[in-house]
Amino acid sequence: MMDCLFCKIVRQEIPARVLKENKHALAFRDINPQAPTHVLVIPKKHVASLEEATPSDAALLGEVLFLASEVARDEKITSGYRLVLNTGSGAGQSVFHIHVHVLGGRPLSWPPG
Ligand code: AMP
Question: Which residue's C-alpha comes closest to atom 1 of ligand 1?
């Protein structure tokens, strides 16, 4: 996807504070952090949202979650962190390339807003 913001980050066409990556997923700091740790983990392949994912993306989504857990460990927030995957504009999704927010380093209330 040529005009997708996160695809451009994958292709290193725009800068990002990358923390970690594996063959299929990339983790970088959110540009507008909502917590002391706020990292986005994305599949390198363009999938617009969880609604667009197919059974063939199941392993890819597992890679994204596993990288998120590694980020949490590296950031030393394993005493409590939250993964958020906004799906659809009604849930606040603003970038249509699947991304998991990794949030931690402060108390997180429940339910989320
Ligand atoms: P969402 O609202 O769930 O789609 O989340 C999109 C996230 O992408 C927001 O938290 C933004 O702050 C973040 N974001 C937008 N542009 C960039 C960028 N260039 N680098 C890092 N994070 C970004």
Answer: 93
Distance 30 CA to ligand 1 centre (A): 6
Q: What is the pLDDT of residues 18-45, one digit of tens each?
A: 999 999 999 999 999 999 999 999 999 9
Measure 95 CA to ligand 1 centroid, in angstroms.
7
In three-state secondary structure terms, 24 is coil
Written as six digits, the tokens of 89 are 């504009």
Report pTM. Answer: 0.97
Fold designation for 5-104: HIT family, subunit A (3.30.428)
